[in-house]
């Protein structure tokens, strides 16, 4: 699937803008329309391939990988880099000093809308093609379903960071359609649900794709995303004291049950946890949806969106130490607070965090950021604790697994708890802990262990067999299982505990780190500002407090 997607993007990236000529002038005799392009199934495939491409983007005028928010805004990671001034936009995000001209947020926001525009074009044009243009049975429906999933996914990325955003369901062809008002949070969630529910019946199972198409959206991905979207929607409705919260949790349970029933033969937990984060483990049994990257030795550094098919993440988060092979840039440094969350003997700690020794650091001043010298491991090291060899000194071919089965199991455990299915919640919590423990006598079953309690200055809390402590156990497990995978900030926000956790985290951090942190303001910092350029161009209402 990588070759299909990555080599098909250039024509459609431009095609999505062709019919915007009438913004400036009347069409000339050599002007093409979308209908001129969409003449057969090859064009339809290229169209949806183009809609996948913005998922890969991480650099335009600055780097804007989602973990700059998901990890660094949370208690899991510090910004890192050479010093505090290295990537000032990320430093502001880390310390709740973000303002509306933050370039990282602008690039991220616009990349998602590029994806939405491409998905909209695909949905409109491929849906309008006659069936006789397709030689492959069911291909037309599948392509439209892929595009609808992708549109929902791009909106999911946006809504978690900015709240309600403009709801655009068709290609923007004229200047009259350019300015779109912000939709409500409920409107965007309703659109995501509609897209996913319409897409799900027309998507193949993972095993039904040819190997060249491995990585495309599947019915399992749509079902798992429906559960996740409904759970998030219910979490935020719960914070708003909505009477329809129970409906969201009921629907989340329905889709979780559907996934478990219909996809049982499609997915399984990797026997070795680390295999999820290696080149050899890409698109493996545990992967529900991952962003595809590939090796590309040609130089395109600094060219911006769409000029690379590799990921910058590997080099961004590697240690800066010249004593190690292929040193990186040292961003996204795991905190001691995260390190202390792991139970004794938990092998996921070593698979997530490397504690650099003085001997390993060629320049301790550069390697230590605000008192922290930890280094993230996932997507940087091999299982033999060595850096993977790269074809380019800034990029890596390793995929980004954005949704895997262990994540689903823990979300499903939450869904079970919300639906008063305590046995189900315990079962899927234990599934994840069982894989992590392997054959060792560690990580006891719930409730026979202790977890750090942010409410008590991180004193250890002995779990008891109550729904409240089961919820605490699931949250603890998500932090350890998904450490440094970009989930933590979004979990804290949807759980409605981000203010309490970040205040406790700040109090427990080093004096050096605390001196940089601004106060977390409830009702403001759960969301980030809509980029100022978008506010001015489209007349959007800004988020509270910015």
For the structure shown, list the relevant keywords:
mainly alpha; single chain; 22 helices; two-stranded antiparallel ribbon; disordered N terminus; two-stranded antiparallel sheet; 546 residues
Q: Give the amount of beta strand, in percent.
A: 5-15%
Mean pLDDT score: 91
General form: globular
Helix content: 40-55%
Instruction: Give the strand tally.
Output: 8
Q: Roughly how many Å is the radius of gyration?
A: 23 Å
Rounded to the nearest angstrom, the distance between the terminal CA atoms is 42 Å
Q: Note the run of SSEs as H and E.
A: HHHHHEHHHHHHEHEHHEHEEHHEEHHHHH
Structural class: mainly alpha
Task: Walk me through the structure.
The chain has 546 residues and is mainly α. It has a domain at 313-389. It is 44% helix and 6% strand. It contains 22 helices and eight strands. The chain has helices at residues 2-7, 9-18, 34-37, 41-52, 67-70, 88-94, 103-128, 139-162, 185-199, 219-239, 245-262, 313-317, 336-339, 347-352, 364-367, 405-418, 422-437, 467-481, 488-495, 498-508, 511-514, 532-538, and strands spanning 77-80, 287-291, 331-334, 353-355, 374-376, 400-404, 450-453, 459-462. It has a two-stranded antiparallel ribbon with strand order 1-3. A hairpin with a 5-residue loop joins β7 and β8 (459-462). α17 runs parallel beside α18 (467-481). The radius of gyration is 23 Å and the shape is globular. It starts with a helix and ends in an 8-residue tail after the last helix. Residues 2-25 have low confidence and may be disordered.
């Amino acid at each position: 699937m990588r070759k299909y997607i990555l080599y098909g993007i250039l024509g459609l990236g431009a095609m999505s803008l062709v019919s915007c000529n009438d913004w400036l002038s009347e069409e000339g005799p050599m002007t093409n329309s979308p209908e001129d392009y969409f003449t057969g199934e090859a064009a339809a495939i290229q169209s949806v391939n183009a809609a996948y491409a913005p998922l890969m983007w991480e650099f335009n005028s600055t780097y804007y990988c989602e973990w700059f928010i998901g990890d660094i805004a949370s208690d899991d990671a510090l910004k890192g880099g050479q010093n505090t001034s290295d990537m000032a936009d990320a430093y502001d995000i880390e310390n709740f000093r973000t303002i509306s001209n933050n370039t990282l947020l602008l690039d991220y926001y616009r990349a998602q809308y590029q994806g939405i525009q491409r998905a909209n074009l695909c949905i409109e044009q491929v849906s309008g093609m006659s069936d006789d243009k397709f030689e492959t049975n069911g291909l037309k429906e599948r392509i439209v379903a892929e595009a609808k999933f992708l549109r929902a996914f791009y909106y999911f990325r946006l809504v978690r960071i900015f709240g309600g955003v403009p709801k655009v369901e068709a290609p923007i062809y004229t200047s009259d359609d350019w300015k779109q008002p912000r939709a409500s949070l409920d409107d965007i969630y309703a659109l995501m649900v509609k897209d996913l529910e319409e897409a799900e019946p027309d998507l193949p199972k993972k095993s039904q794709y040819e190997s060249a198409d491995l990585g495309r959206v599947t019915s399992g991905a749509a079902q798992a995303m429906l559960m996740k979207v409904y759970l998030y929607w219910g979490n935020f409705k719960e914070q708003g004291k909505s009477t329809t919260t129970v409906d969201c949790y009921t629907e989340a349970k329905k889709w979780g049950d559907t996934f478990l029933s219909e996809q049982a033969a499609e997915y399984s937990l990797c026997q070795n946890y680390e295999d999820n984060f290696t080149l050899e483990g890409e698109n493996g049994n545990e992967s529900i949806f991952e962003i595809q990257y590939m090796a590309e030795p040609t130089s395109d550094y600094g060219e911006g969106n769409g000029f690379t098919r590799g990921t910058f993440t590997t080099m961004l988060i590697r240690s800066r130490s010249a004593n190690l092979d292929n040193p990186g840039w040292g961003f996204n440094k795991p905190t001691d607070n995260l390190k202390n969350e792991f139970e004794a003997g938990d092998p996921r700690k070593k698979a997530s965090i490397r504690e650099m020794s003085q001997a390993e650091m060629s320049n301790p001043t550069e390697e230590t950021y605000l008192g922290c010298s930890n280094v993230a491991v996932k997507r940087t090291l091999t299982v033999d604790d060595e850096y993977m060899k790269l074809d380019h000194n800034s990029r890596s071919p390793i995929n980004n697994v954005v949704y895997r089965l262990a994540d689903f199991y823990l979300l499903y455990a939450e869904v079970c708890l919300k639906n008063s299915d305590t046995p189900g919640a315990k079962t899927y919590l234990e599934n994840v802990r069982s894989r992590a423990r392997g054959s060792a006598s560690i990580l006891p079953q719930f409730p026979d262990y202790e977890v750090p309690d942010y409410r008590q200055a991180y004193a250890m809390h002995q779990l008891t067999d109550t729904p409240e402590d089961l919820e605490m156990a699931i949250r603890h497990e998500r932090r350890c299982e998904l450490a440094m995978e970009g989930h933590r900030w979004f979990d804290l926000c949807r759980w409605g505990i981000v203010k309490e956790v970040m205040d406790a985290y700040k109090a427990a951090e080093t004096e050096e780190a605390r001196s940089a942190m601004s106060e977390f303001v409830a009702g403001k910092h759960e969301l980030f500002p809509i980029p100022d350029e978008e506010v001015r161009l489209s007349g959007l209402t800004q988020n509270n407090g910015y």
